[in-house]
Amino acid sequence: MVMTFVITVLIVLLIIMLWAMFTNNSLIAKRNRVRQCRSGICVAIKQRNDMIPNLISTVKAYMVHENETLTRIAELRSQSMSDSERQQIDEGNEISSLLSRLNVAVENYPALKADGQFMELQRSIIDMECELQAIRRTYNAAVTDYNNCIEMFPSSIFASWRNFQEEELIEIPPENMRDINVAQMFEK
Description:
Layout: H1 2-60, H2 67-80, H3 85-106, H4 110-114, H5 116-151, H6 155-161, H7 182-185
C-alpha cells in the first residue's frame, strides 16, 4: 500500500515536471518566434530604406511638386535607422502609406512610367511592401499564438511564475487606413 502510494506520487511528480518542462520550452520557442518575426520586419524595413534613395533620385527628376512626400519619406527613412524596433515598425507603416501615395502620383507622369530604371525600382518597392505585409501578418500570428499561450490556463500559471510578458500586435494607425484622395494629390 505504501509502495503504491509512493509510486503514484512519483508518477504525478514526473508528469508535473514533464508538463513544466514542455510548457517552458514551448513558451520560450513562441517568444523567440515573436522576436524573430520582429527582427524580420526590421530587416525588411532596412532593405526597403536602402532602396528608397534610388527611387527618390529617379523620381525627383520628374516630380518637383511631390517634394513634400519625398522629403517625408527621406526623413522617416533616416529616423528609422536609429529608432527602437517598435518605432521602426511604426515609421515603416507610415512609409508604406506614403509610398502608395507616391505610386498613385506617378501615374500622371508617362515619361517616368516608361523609364526602365524607375519601373525596376517600383517593382522592387512593391515586392518589398508585399514582403513587409507578409512579415507583419506572420508577426501578428506569432504574437497571438504566444499571447494565447501565456494567457490560457494551465500554461498561464507557469508563464506568470516565469514572468513571460505579453507582446503587442502591430496595428495600423487610423490615419493610414483612410481612403486616398487621388485628385487632392495633384492639387498645388
